[in-house]
Design brief:
It comes from Desulfomarina profundi. This protein folds into 3 domains: about 80 residues, Double Stranded RNA Binding Domain (2-Layer Sandwich); about 90 residues, Tyrosine recombinase, N-terminal domain (DNA polymerase, domain 1); about 180 residues, hpI Integrase, Chain A. By secondary structure, the chain is α+β, with helices and mostly antiparallel strands.
Length: about 400
């Protein structure tokens, strides 16, 4: 007699498991842990059992459909248990070879060589803009139009540069998948020219001497915390990237030898960097040392001295001083120094080395971080004196 849903629902567990038989060899195995649909069958002379689901997640009608499918396979000479095993293996393989799984594998292998802030931006970009639509897809099955559709979503938000960066990052993941045998080609390569071009503007900066003087006087009058004010005062003197400046540690500062030596892992280009400290820079550091010198960071966070100050602190201070984003940026101090030092006639090699710009030959760059150090010392002191003259409103004098 065929089973009914009522009979299954009302069946109570006993001290030993028991069966409720249905038609076509299917039955419900009742245990203390639950009620399980099963099918006993013979294949190639062997007795086998196939699980059809757990009641009530799987209803009686659904279990019977699964039973009919299994019987059909058996009649056609196919073992349903082997089919299920193969399907599970395929699901595992697809999961391991999904775009998200391979991306995270690629990220783990490469992120140790990146600055922490850079690594966070990359993985966050994937999590926000790519994984929700492509994360679960087997990477080998993702087509160029499918990838373009995801990138178009980013463009439609008006963040065109993010779309280009996402395409670049996806290409890196595809190439990693090719190298590790999980994909045949980099499908992102077919999308060159498919995105809206980005108009790259120069970092907002100030290069007119009179306006530089006004900026320096505004910084001197800034009423924020001593930590932010000291960082603001030091920024034009050392012209580092904002992230490199805010993560300064006291162990890197050698007051006696007037040097700041930044280890490779904290630099964008991953090579150590030396900043000769001018007399003006030393004064700023000596003034802030009694406040933060007992901790790790020269410019600690206002919330915790175990972390550096926010990467937005200098930018926010500039905004509070009245400098809009099109007027001045945290990176603008680098452009300011580069422009004026070149105009003053300092050798480009000396300026570029002090800016810690990329060296085409990486092996050469690893040994050249101290190159032109005596000349750089002279340039940094001359630059600091020049800024002092602008701040005082004095005569503009060319150095070099």
């Amino acid at each position: 007699m065929p089973l009914t849903d009522t009979a299954i629902r009302n069946a109570k567990p006993r001290s030993k498991q028991f069966k409720l038989s249905d038609e076509k060899g299917m039955y419900v195995l009742v245990k203390k842990a639950g009620k399980y649909f099963r099918l006993d069958y013979r294949f190639a002379g062997k007795r086998k059992t196939l699980a059809l689901g757990v009641y009530p997640d799987v209803k009686l009608a659904e279990a019977r459909e699964k039973c009919d499918d299994a019987k059909r396979m058996i009649r056609n000479g196919v073992d349903p248990a082997q089919v299920r095993k193969a399907n599970k293996a395929m699901q595992v393989e697809q999961s391991e070879n999904s775009f998200e799984a391979i991306t995270r594998e690629w990220f783990i292998k490469h992120s140790s060589n990146w600055a922490e802030s850079h690594a966070k931006k990359i993985i966050r970009r994937f999590e926000l803009h790519v994984f929700p639509w492509l994360g679960g897809r087997p990477i080998a099955e993702i087509t160029p139009p499918e990838l373009l559709s995801v990138l178009r979503r980013i463009e439609n938000k008006g963040i065109h540069e993010t779309a280009h960066r996402a395409l670049q990052n996806c290409g890196q993941v595809f190439r990693y998948a090719v190298a590790t045998g999980r994909a045949e080609r980099d499908n992102s390569a077919d999308l060159r020219g498919a995105l809206t071009p980005v108009k790259h503007g120069s970092m907002a900066t100030i290069t007119e001497p009179k306006k530089i003087g006004e900026l320096l006087r505004a910084i001197d009058g800034y009423q924020g915390t001593p930590v932010v004010q000291s960082a603001l005062k030091l920024a034009p003197l050392v012209f580092l990237r904002p992230g490199e400046l805010r993560r300064a540690e006291w162990t890197e500062i050698d007051i006696d030898n007037a040097e700041w030596r930044i280890p490779a892992q904290k630099m964008k280009m991953k090579f150590p960097h030396i900043i000769p400290l001018s007399e003006q820079s030393l004064t700023i550091l000596c003034d802030i040392q009694p406040i933060t010198g007992q901790g790790r960071y020269v410019f600690p966070s206002i919330r915790s001295d175990s972390r550096p100050m926010s990467d937005n602190a200098i930018l926010a201070a500039l905004r509070r001083m009245g400098y809009a984003k099109e007027d001045m940026s945290g990176h603008g101090f680098r452009a300011m120094a580069s422009t004026i030092l070149h105009e003053q006639g300092w050798l480009s090699d000396i300026i570029e080395r002090q800016l810690a710009h990329a060296e085409r030959n990486k092996i050469k760059a690893a040994y050249n971080y101290a190159q032109h150090l005596p000349e750089r010392r002279g340039m940094m002191q001359a630059w600091a004196d020049y800024l002092d003259s602008l701040k005082k409103g004095g005569k503009v004098v060319s150095f070099g």
